[in-house]
Model the fold of this input.
Amino acid sequence: MKRTITLSAAALILAACATQPKFDGPTYLNPNAPVEDRVEDALSRMTLEEKVGMTTAQSKFSSRGVPRLGIPEVWHTDGPHGIRPEVLWDEWDQAGWTNDSCTAFPALINLAATWDKEMSLLYGDCIGEEARYRKKDILLGPGVNICRTPLNGRNFEYMGEDPYLAGQMVVPYVKGVQQNGVAACVKHYAVNNQEFQRTQSNSVVDDRTLYEIYLPAFKAAVQEGGAWAIMGSYNLYNGQYNCHNERLLCDILKGEWGFDGVVVSDWGGCRDSEEAVRNGLDIEMGTWTNGLRGAASDSYRNYHMAAPYLEGLNSGKYTTKELDDKVRRILRTIFRTSMRPEPNYGRFVCPEHYQAARDIAAAGVVLLKNEDNVLPLDVPQGGKILLVGENAVKKLVVGGGSSNLKTAYEVNPLEGLQNAYGDNAEVAWVRGYVGDTSTSYNLVDTGQDLTDHRSPKELIAEAVAAAKDADYVIFVGGLNKSANQDNEGTDRYNTFLPYDQQDVIEALAQVADKFIVVNISGSPVSMPWADCADAIVQGWYGGTESGNALADVLTGKVNPSGRLPFTVPYKYEDGPIKTERQYPGIKEEGSKYWQTHYDEGIYVGYRWYDSKGVPAQWPFGYGLSYTSFEYSDAKIDKPAMRKGDKLTLTVDVKNTGSREGAEIVQLYISDPQASIDRPVKELKGFEKVNLKPGEMKKVSFTIDAEDLSWFDADKHEWVAEPGEFKALISSTGSDVRAELPFELK
Ligand code: GLC
Done:
């Protein structure tokens, strides 16, 4: 008898599983085995030498795998803004490949200025794809060091002065990178807030300041972003180098925060074998080879955790306790990246990445002033726009230190506006001033020759003459990535424009009909000349599509929604840094290190200006739009909350103008009854809302006791004190659109 058998779908699936060949290789090679099983299996198979080998570099940007077991080496790459060009095995200079011109994404300060978490995810995903395509396992970025001083040479690589903004913006970036099977290596951990004497400077910070200002962005990256790697910084904290700082790495990062990834040293940041072994450093990179100390013969064997470590293990100085922990973390990273289960191949320099770079750059542009709505540009047919200034043409992706990039192209502001207007208007340019005419960095060339021997007088005369018949004059200046500008390894000397740009601005103001100043920089620039301009735009190092992005905003194709991620002071002296011991620090006779005292404590950025009632030229969170927004019906869902409760605040936001636009609704918390000194307000929420003309949306925030807390260093815990609080809803950081009192029971 013929029997028909109807197998249910479930049975079919079971049957299929039953027939799937059982993985009969070693567990560590089984892509579907749990990561921890793979880690333990691999560890159990490794010799002592193989374990020690994994903890140090084998080349400029790679650290060892275990060839015998088929475990690949780990490839690290800069940087936070794009994938650095390939270098030779042990060189800083690029190797001259022809297929490693990357997408240069906007500087992270530009991303922070978008206040847009979705854009941060997009950014991370795109740069993660490029790293994956280039077969890199650890991306050496993002950087989240707080902008403590406007002079710090690396502010452009970081996310501004507020720990909450930096924390909320770094989380999506980390997730975006890591969803491509690439580890984000959040840097530079920690209290690394100046370039001056960066390898000899000891940061002296009280605990409350450390926990309220300098750790939160790293903590968010680890606990909310799930960061797989952290980079120790060059400086010292509490008198110990941060690449093997027991308190920062063992007690806080791996202890309190439960970090299960790898700690990578900054290049040359490891300074001591025993501390490196015992204090939580997992991968030692760049020792001997970055000019910090002379390269020794076979320097890789001389790494602090190479031969000296093996000798210490063999002599019984060390057990394998620390070593096994390091190797577990490195293996875990490998099984999350190069040996991850689901192979993906990433993408490199594709239209989507260019578009993302352009959109993110444009969304971060901040409109600071727009008298008589001189912007967006309204150029008559056949009209003339005159651009003046070196930054209208200078390629700004090249240089600046380790974030230096080689790109297939970079659109500068002149090209961006010429692209926008085509034959409909003349877009001309004159030099205006001569700044930095260098044309290469690490053998990456800009392909430009900016040589110009004319005197400032001649240059200004040329600009004034050319301005006379222009419908719009746009000065494009600011900083660049040369020494003592926005540049790794050096700090700025002041917050004003360099190269006598102010003279050019003042001269043009006399003759220009409609005069716009675009300041391109990665850190705060004071503008004593602000009254000269009808409009002022804060532009950033926007990367490959920078010029198109700026043109998108100036022409109105994109309605600016950027908000300042840092305070712009009228002058540096208005800020919290008043003494040399605060910055750049002091070096006592006979002392080996500089001591930088963070005496201002938690009063960094707007916290300082608010508490002292000192006006800022442009406050944190500030930015204008081509449209206007009205706030109404702000309310709170209950007048009092208890610990463990959540409080919901809502506010209606309406676009009352004629252009579509995005508003960044900002929520600050104020604790007027605090028993201790607290800032006037602290950012605890922000939401970007896109609105068509006339459209209204309800924006809501949820807060809990954590948002009300301050860090009690004596108790070593966060404290939310019962009493009156105020929720301040703001549009530009300094204006309060709604004030909602509530009580914590
Ligand atoms: C540099 C930088 C760090 C970079 C590393 C590798 O000195 O401080 O940000 O990732 O070395 O280039």
